[in-house]
């Protein structure tokens, strides 16, 4: 993949950012960081730690932070809708997120809230949940995050990492 770039996708750090800071140090260099909510920490800290383009959306525990409830992120030739997911009935499936993605004309959705990784394609839209960097809920309970490597074309390589 010529001229590849890297996006680091994280979620649900809940103010316990030791693992988050380790990830950001380990994955350097990267071009963008996306946090899918329940950050519960100072936005300026993320700016200082990353030194690159970053996006954080509000989760159900981000009280007192002035974060948007959603973001649109462009990476390569793709467009992602970023939400936490707590307002999209995730436990009933991806349908509500699918409607939101179609409305936003996005071909990717980055979301959190479940505290477990998800990588699915549904109705032509790729849904990615990196899991939680702090409080994982999937079997084995390992903290996880994702990296996406991409260029200007349609190819995207998604890797799930454990901490």
**Unreliable stretches, pLDDT < 50, 5 or more residues?**
none
- The radius of gyration computed from the alpha-carbon positions, rounded to a whole number of angstroms, is 14 Å
The helix tally amounts to 3
H/E topology pattern:
EHEHEEEHEEEEE
Give helix % range: 10-25%
Strand composition percent: 25-35%
Intertermini distance: 26 Å
Backbone shape: globular
CATH class: Alpha Beta
Structural class by sheet pairing and helices: alpha/beta
**Got a strand count?**
10
Major sheet details: 5 strands, mixed
CATH topology: Purple Acid Phosphatase, chain A, domain 2
Total tally of structural domains = 1
Based on the structure given, which CATH architecture is correct?
4-Layer Sandwich
* Widest sheet, order of strands: 3-2-1-9-10
What's the CATH superfamily, by name? Metallo-dependent phosphatases
Mean pLDDT: 94
Explain what you see.
This protein is of the alpha/beta class and 163 residues long. It has one domain: 4-Layer Sandwich (Purple Acid Phosphatase, chain A, domain 2). It contains 3 helices and 10 strands, in the order βαβαβββαβββββ. The protein has helices at 18-26, 43-50, 95-104; strands at 5-10, 32-35, 53-56, 70-75, 78-83, 108-110, 117-122, 125-130, 144-150, 156-162. Strands 3-2-1-9-10 form a 5-stranded mixed beta sheet, covered by helices on one side. It is globular and about 35 Å long. The two termini are 26 Å apart. 38% of the residues are buried. The mean pLDDT is 94.
